[in-house]
Amino acid sequence: MSEPVSTGAGRGQTAVSPLSLPSPPSPDLPVPHFPMTPLPPPVNYLIARNSELPPITASMFEYVLGANGLFLRLQREGFTATAPLAECPIRGLAPVAPHFRLHYPLVPTCLSLQMLQLSRHAAPQEILFHFYFQQGRWKLRIPRQKRRAESVLR
Q1: What is the dihedral of CA 81, 82, 86, 92, to 10 degrees?
Q2: C-alpha span between 57 and 37 (Å, rounded)
Q3: What does pTM read for this prediction?
Q4: Rounded distance, CA 40 to CA 119, Å?
Q5: pLDDT band (50, 70, 90) for residue 135
Q6: DSSP state, 120?
Q7: What are the C-alpha distances in Å from 133 to residues 33, 42, 107, 111?
């Protein structure tokens, strides 16, 4: 039989023996199970073998190699984009078309006219506008700014 091991505890301290570790949980107790949802990769790499590209699966962006070069493709809330990075002919692949697509409706004419009217009123100084889409509608905001004839400072 083995003797307890002294840990050198002083007065008022409790000596803990490394031989007295807590026992593992009973195999009869259920172990909680937390299902793991796999995260999409941050970057993905595609080869354009035909004109139809699959949906974007990367959380940051994808590189796409096509007949006309290397492209960067990404998707964020409100838009998708495919932009050329390097032009080079590659035989046997499908061409990739650059694009930028907003997933919002067009800005209403009344807001564009309001922006034009405010710009005329501010002339000859510059003026900065922010369009934003909130609660299903486009809105126009003029942030605090210092206006000059040649620039705007926030």
Answers
A1: 170
A2: 14
A3: 0.57
A4: 44
A5: very high
A6: H
A7: 41, 27, 9, 12
